[in-house]
Design brief:
It is a single chain. With about 500 residues, the protein is an alpha+beta fold. It folds into 3 domains: about 5-65 and about 185-240 and about 465-490, D-Maltodextrin-Binding Protein, domain 2; about 70-165, Alpha-Beta Complex (Dipeptide-binding Protein, domain 1), CATH 3.90.76.10; about 265-460, Dipeptide-binding Protein, Domain 3 (Dipeptide-binding Protein, domain 3, Roll). The protein has helices at about 55-60, 110-125, 160, 225-230, 280-290, 290-300, 330-335, 355-370, 380-390, 405-410, 425-435, 440-455, and strands at about 5, 30-35, 35-40, 70-75, 75-80, 85-90, 90-95, 135-145, 145-150, 185-195, 195-200, 215-220, 235-240, 255-260, 265-270, 345-350, 370-380, 395-400, 455-460, 465-470, 475, 490. A 7-stranded mixed beta sheet has the order 10-11-12-3-13-20-14, covered by helices on one side. The protein has a 5-stranded mixed beta sheet with strand order 17-16-18-15-19. The protein has a 4-stranded antiparallel beta sheet with strand order 6-7-9-8, covered by helices on one side. Strand 6 and strand 7 form a beta hairpin. The radius of gyration is 22 Å and the shape is globular. The relative contact order is 0.17.
């Protein structure tokens, strides 16, 4: 089926309906006609630069597709990427880079550009994930294809994180990342209109296997419009569909698959704002929210419960602990002890389908245990990001965080929008990262125990990835273990 994609596409959509990276940005896009496969998503990108804004939409579209990393994450393994192999001696990593690789603008990928990429994160990135590179003491080119990275201390998480967005290899000659990303990946940017679509075309000079299809990520305002477009033949795939009730009315030519993600639907409570500056009040919320009911309302029970913890099942410190079993009477008691019965609470819900729906359930449950609840909507992404994440002007909110292994980002920085400030938790996180590898999961589990004892936030569920696609589409991986949506194998049957 041939589809026409124009710079003035009128649809707007969002990737994964998650915490999306957004900033001002625009690029002139020429009109193109192609047999591009089109993926419908929600949570639109308004910029292509993820170095200075937080969120998931931009890395989801660009990582592994436009940008590549020294190492790749496949399941629970770290495998070679742009580095053929690497040696480790103490806190020093020596990467042996693949030869003959070029960026899409013609620049050579060398140890110098790799060192630049790492140092650039430390020196110039301003988003939350940049802190993951703080453990790097130096990154230097030994020769054209040998990179030496010295860490200031042992870190269990650093090499793994190098397979995510902070490990994106960039060239210093690419200066307008908001509109013109330049990477070594299997795709190059073909077109971009902020809030509407991102179009990718195969990089014919790619060092590996060249993709077979052009791919367009088109952003829709809601699941209904994206599913309707799939049913009418306007798109080929609906990514991260958020309305399971729509599954009952699909045609016989539409397939469904459900994958796992790193996405935690996090109920945030501003630890620096009354009444949530009292841990007893946060604990009351945790006991007073019926996570099973939320799962049924949002996903028909298809989501995985994490016991309230911010730990997806793919993390090695995932456990079967239920930190806050639903107990409204205990919640009422804690609220009374804190002198917070009748406390006014405003839930600032982003305009994302899952957030809007579950906020109504939260309104009912939190009212039942004794809060005076008000609901307000914040347009997502721009208003929500500015108000909640930026200004921290909120009491309670919720959004899906899909950045991989993000506990240190969420709970290890008191300046983050959660406002969680626990020296004990930070010490445990630091000890886990610096510990011998075999002790890493255990110590991370202890850090999670502390965070949950403090009720720093409550994870309602692990976000499932419901993917719909028309018959004939192949190579689609519904599992999103890191921040990337893998597009290189996507194709249509001949």
């Amino acid at each position: 089926m041939q589809k026409v994609h124009l710079a003035r596409m009128a649809c707007a959509l969002v990737l994964g309906a998650s915490l999306s990276a957004c900033s001002a940005g625009h690029t002139a896009v020429k009109e193109t006609t192609s047999d591009s496969l089109t993926i419908a998503a929600t949570g639109a990108a308004t910029s292509l630069d993820f170095t200075n804004v937080g969120g998931a939409a931009i890395p989801a579209a660009l990582m592994s597709n436009v940008y590549e990393t020294l190492v790749r994450i496949e399941g629970d393994e770290i495998v070679p990427g742009l580095a053929e192999n690497w040696d480790t001696e103490g806190t020093t990593y020596t990467f042996h880079l693949r030869k003959g690789i070029k960026f899409s603008n013609g620049d050579a990928f060398t140890a110098e550009t790799a060192a630049y990429s790492i140092n650039n994160v430390k020196e110039n990135w301003t988003n939350g994930i940049a802190k993951q590179m703080a453990v790097v003491d130096s990154a230097t080119a030994i020769d054209e294809h040998t990179l030496k990275v010295k860490l200031s201390k042992h870190s269990n998480g650093w090499l793994w994180s190098m397979g995510t967005a902070i490990g994106a290899m960039m060239t210093p000659t690419a200066t307008d990342l908001a509109t013109t990303p330049v990477g070594t990946g299997p795709f190059t940017l073909a077109g971009f209109t902020p809030g509407e679509f991102i179009s990718l075309t195969p990089n014919r000079d790619y060092w590996g296997k060249v993709p077979q299809e052009d791919v367009t990520i088109q952003y829709f305002p809601d699941a209904v419009s994206s599913v309707n477009s799939l049913k009418s033949g306007g798109v080929d795939v609906v990514w991260a569909m958020q309305n399971p009730e729509l599954l009952d009315d699909l045609g016989s030519d539409i397939r469904t698959t459900v994958g796992t993600t790193n996405g935690e639907v996090l109920l945030s409570m501003n630890n620096n704002a009354a009444p949530f500056d009292d841990p007893r009040v946060r604990q009351a919320v945790a006991y007073g929210v019926d996570r099973d009911a939320a799962n049924q309302v949002l996903w028909g029970g298809m989501a995985q419960d994490t016991g309230g913890a911010p730990v997806p099942p793919t993390d090695p410190w995932s456990s079967d602990k239920d930190y806050y079993r639903f107990d409204p009477e205990r919640a009422k008691k804690l609220l009374a002890e804190a002198g917070a019965v009748g406390a006014p609470v405003t839930i600032t819900a982003p305009t994302l389908p899952y957030a809007q729906r579950v906020s109504e359930l939260l309104y009912s449950q939190l009212t039942e245990i004794g809060f005076d609840v008000t609901l307000e909507s914040a347009e997502f992404p721009a208003v929500w990001l500015g108000q909640v994440m930026g200004a921290k002007d909120y009491q309670m909110s919720l959004v899906s965080h899909v950045e991989p292994r993000d506990i240190p980002t969420l709970f290890g920085n008191p300046d983050y929008y959660l406002g969680y400030d626990s020296q004990k938790a930070r010490d445990l996180l630091a000890a886990a990262d610096a510990a011998p590898e075999e002790q890493y999961p255990k110590l991370m589990g202890e850090a999670v125990d502390q965070i949950m004892a403090d009720a720093g936030a409550l994870t309602l569920m692990n976000m499932p990835n419901i993917v719909l696609y028309r018959d004939g589409i192949e190579g689609l991986d519904p599992n999103q273990i890191t921040d990337a949506i893998e597009l290189r194998n996507l194709k249509e049957q001949a």
